[in-house]
Specification:
Layout lengths: L10 E5 L6 H18 L2 H4 L3 E5 L5 H14 L4 E5 L4 H10 L4 E5 L8 E7 L8 H9 L13 H6 L3 E3 L3 H11 L2 H5 L4 E5 L8 H5 L6 E4 L22 H9 L4 E5 L6 E4 L5 E2 L1 H15 L6 E4 L5 H9 L3 E4 L3 H11 L3 E3 L5 E3 L8 H15 L3 H12 L4 E8 L3 H13 L4 E2 L2 E7 L4 E5 L4 E6 L5 E8 L5 H12 L4
Parallel strand pairs: 2-3, 2-4, 3-6, 7-8, 7-9, 12-13, 12-14
Antiparallel strand pairs: 1-5, 4-5, 9-10, 10-11, 14-15, 16-21, 17-18, 18-19, 19-20, 20-21
C-alpha cells in the first residue's frame, strides 16, 4: 500500500529517503496541480506556479522534480531553483502574478528532514481547508503522476528559470529606508544558520559605514554547531558568541529558509521571540506611527494585547501556524502578524513570514531611536508594565499511545491555580491554553510539523516561570 501523505502546517515534511522520496514529492506536486485546476479558472492556472527551495540535501533535484510534474500538467513554472529564501519565493508569486508556489524546505527541522510547502496567489499560507483539498488529491501511487523531463519543459517554455532577487530587493527598498542603516556606523553580526538568508543582509547594507559580518554562511546540509536551523538556544549559541567576539551592536538571526527572525543584543544575549514580536509592534505603533490590526497566534506574547490597548488598535488571536495567521491577516488587513516561533509578517508586504525584512525593521528601529537592543527592551517594558518572561520545553512523543493518554489528561485538566496564580480561563482553539490572573499563560500542544509535545509559558512573575512550566509537564504526564 502506498505511503499516505498527510499535510500539516504549511504542507508536508518527512525524513529524507525514508518517506521524503522523489516519488512522494512528485505525488504531492500532482496533487497540487489537480487542486489548482479544480479551484481556479484555466486562464488563472496558466499564470503559473513559482517553484524554489532551500539548501538542504538534494534540494536542487527535488525542486526540479516538482517543476517536471507541474509542466507535464501544462502548468507554467517560474523556477527560482534552490537556495531561495522562503519570503523571496512568496513575494515572487505576487511579482510574477502567479497562482501559487511550491517551496521545497523543511524550515527549522533537523537536517534529516525536507518538506513540501504550498502558497496561495497572495504568497501566503493556504488555509487548512485548502491543505485538506490538496491532500485529498494526492495520487495513491506514481501511476497517477504526470512527468516531463526538465530540459523538455524549458524548451517548451513551460519551465522558466528566473532571478527573483531584483523584484524582491525593489520591494524591500519601498518598505524600509536602507540608506540611514548603511550610514549608521553599526557593527552587525548575521547568523543565517547555513541557510538561504546568507548574503542578503550583507548585500542590502553594503556601501556605507555599517559593517556586516556573517557566520555559517556556506551551504552545509548537516548544520554543524546546531541541532537544527531553528533560531532559538542552543542552536544560536555559536552565532551569539560570534557576534559578541566582534562587539556587534546587534546580532541578526534567520532560520534555515530565512522566514523567521531572531535577535541577539549588544551583549551577545539572546532576545526571545516573544520580545522580538513586542519590539516590532512597538516599532510600527510608536516609532512609525502606523495603525492597524495585530494578528497573533495563541501561544505568543500578551505584551501585544497591552500595546494594542495603549494605541487603540484591534488584536486577533488564532491557532498556531501561518495557515491560520495569513488568512486572518488578509481578512482584517493587519498591520503585523506573527507567532511564537519567530515568524513575523507585515501588512504592507505579503502575508508571509520574512526574516530578512524583520531584521531590517529591527535595525531601522535602532537607527531611528539611537538605542541598542537591550535599551529598546527597557523602553518596551516601560510601555507594557514591566518585563515579561517566556520559555518553551519540547519533548519527543514516545508513541501514539502516549499522545492519546496525554490528550485525555489535558482534556480533563481543570486547575484552579498554577504556581500559585489563579487560572481565569482554559482555551482549546489549538492545544490547551490556561490563562492566569496576571495575564500570563501556560500552553500545551502537539507540534504540527514534528512528533513533539510543546509546553510554553509567559508570565510577569520571573520567579514563577519554571514552576508554571513544571505544572504543564505534570499535566501532560511528562517526567522531568
Amino acid at each position: 500500500m502506498a505511503f499516505k501523505i498527510k499535510f500539516g502546517t504549511d504542507g508536508w515534511r518527512g525524513k529524507i529517503a525514508e518517506d521524503y522520496t522523489f516519488d512522494n514529492v512528485r505525488r504531492c506536486a500532482q496533487g497540487f496541480a489537480d487542486y489548482l485546476k479544480a479551484t481556479y479558472a484555466p486562464e488563472l492556472v496558466q499564470q503559473g506556479v513559482v517553484v524554489g527551495g532551500d539548501r538542504r540535501f538534494g534540494a536542487e533535484d527535488f525542486t526540479a522534480a516538482v517543476a517536471e510534474v507541474l509542466a507535464a500538467n501544462d502548468i507554467p513554472v517560474h523556477f527560482t531553483g534552490f537556495s531561495t529564501p522562503t519570503p523571496v519565493i512568496s513575494y515572487s508569486v505576487v511579482a510574477r502574478n502567479a497562482i501559487g508556489a511550491v517551496n521545497i524546505t523543511a524550515s527549522h527541522n533537523p537536517p534529516s528532514d525536507n518538506g513540501f510547502k504550498v502558497r496561495d496567489p497572495q504568497g501566503g499560507a493556504i488555509a487548512p481547508s485548502g491543505l485538506k483539498a490538496i491532500e485529498a488529491r494526492i495520487p495513491d501511487d506514481m501511476a497517477g503522476v504526470k512527468r516531463m523531463k526538465f530540459d523538455d519543459g524549458v524548451d517548451a517554455g513551460l519551465i522558466m528559470p528566473f532571478d527573483p532577487k531584483p523584484a524582491y530587493v525593489a520591494q524591500i527598498e519601498k518598505l524600509v529606508d536602507l540608506q540611514p542603516i548603511r550610514d549608521a556606523g553599526l557593527t552587525v553580526a548575521v547568523e543565517p544558520m547555513w541557510g538561504n538568508g546568507a548574503g542578503w543582509l550583507s548585500e542590502l547594507l553594503a556601501g556605507g559605514s555599517t559593517h556586516v559580518f556573517e557566520t555559517h554562511a556556506e551551504r552545509n546540509p548537516i548544520f554543524p554547531e546546531m541541532k537544527r536551523p531553528e533560531p532559538i538556544p542552543p542552536n544560536v549559541d555559536a552565532g551569539l558568541a560570534f557576534g559578541k567576539a566582534r562587539h556587534a551592536d546587534a546580532i541578526c538571526i534567520m532560520d534555515g529558509d530565512a522566514d523567521r527572525c531572531g535577535l541577539g543584543d549588544e551583549n551577545g544575549q539572546f532576545v526571545d521571540q516573544l520580545r522580538v514580536f513586542g519590539l516590532l509592534a512597538m516599532y510600527f505603533l510608536d516609532i512609525r506611527g502606523e495603525r492597524g490590526p495585530i494578528v497573533k497566534s495563541l501561544n505568543t506574547t500578551t505584551m501585544l494585547n497591552k500595546l494594542a490597548a495603549k494605541f487603540d488598535v484591534p488584536i486577533y488571536e488564532t491557532g498556531v501556524g501561518f495557515k491560520y495567521i495569513a488568512p486572518k491577516m488578509q481578512e482584517v488587513h493587519a498591520m503585523i502578524g506573527g507567532e511564537e516561533s519567530g515568524g513575523y509578517a507585515f501588512g504592507a508586504h505579503i502575508p508571509e513570514r520574512d526574516g530578512i525584512l524583520g531584521n531590517l525593521f529591527l535595525l531601522d528601529l535602532m537607527v531611528k531611536t539611537g538605542l541598542k537592543p537591550a535599551q529598546l527592551l527597557d523602553r518596551l517594558f516601560e510601555m507594557v508594565g514591566g518585563p515579561h518572561y517566556y520559555h518553551r520545553i519540547d519533548t519527543p512523543l514516545e508513541s501514539n499511545e502516549f499522545k492519546e493518554e496525554a490528550q485525555k489528561r489535558l482534556d480533563a485538566a481543570q486547575p484552579q491555580t498554577i504556581a500559585g496564580l489563579k487560572v481565569m480561563e482554559k482555551v482549546t482553539i489549538d492545544g490547551y491554553k490556561f490563562v492566569m490572573e496576571d495575564g500570563g499563560w501556560l500552553t500545551i500542544r502537539f507540534s504540527g510539523t514534528e512528533p513533539l509535545i510543546r509546553v510554553y509559558a509567559e508570565t510577569t512573575h520571573g520567579d514563577k516561570l519554571n514552576a508554571i512550566l513544571d505544572a504543564g509537564l505534570q499535566m501532560a504526564g511528562i517526567e522531568k
